[in-house]
């Protein structure tokens, strides 16, 4: 978890957590599948949900489509049902985009199932990369000791959408000192080519 970044929203007064977004930088070639770390008693449904998220990212092909080698991936994005419609979701997504920009990631990418969340993302100029349908996931609830729908306020049938916000990065300015090894290498190659003729 040390490589994870989080943005949190707290209620005024009692400081109760009412919204959270958890993200990390994903690099091309990283193939760590979080569903392999699921506890066996959590059941097949949570494994299927994690696999669905992996599936929508695989279908989206962000590295190829956006021509990037890394991006800021939002793994978790949720707002307490009682606090929705108050701008918290927008603030959390904006926080993720700001964090991505600070970390010089060329894109911020999130998987969303809620129509409201997608509307927020579109308003913030996220574009749709891919969609995958799903139907009826139940997850083991430790407190109830049974399998329950994880999101009571959402329909259990729909689509999971992978959406991206591209971030124009500032041009890299190289100092003369940092260019010296590159220039020396090019000069050496030029001399070598001249000798071989």
The percent of residues in helical segments reads: 25-40%
Low-confidence spans: none
Give the radius of gyration. 22 Å
Structural class of the helix and strand makeup?
A: alpha+beta
Biggest β-sheet, characterized? 6 strands, mixed
Tell me the span between the first and last alpha carbons: 56 Å
Order of helices and strands: EEHHEHEHEEEEH
Number-wise, the strands total: 8
**Which whole number gives the mean pLDDT?**
78
Q: Which descriptor suits the 3D outline?
A: globular
Oligomeric state of the chains? single chain
Order of adjacent strands in the largest pleated sheet: 1-2-3-4-8-5
What percent strand? 25-35%
User: Helical region count?
Assistant: 5
Notable features of this structure?
197 residues; alpha+beta; 5 helices; 8 strands; 35% helix
Topology, please?
Elements: E1 5-10, E2 17-27, H1 43-60, H2 62-66, E3 70-79, H3 88-102, E4 107-112, H4 115-123, E5 127-135, E6 139-141, E7 146-148, E8 157-166, H5 176-196
Parallel strand pairs: 3-4
Antiparallel strand pairs: 1-2, 2-3, 4-8, 5-8, 6-7
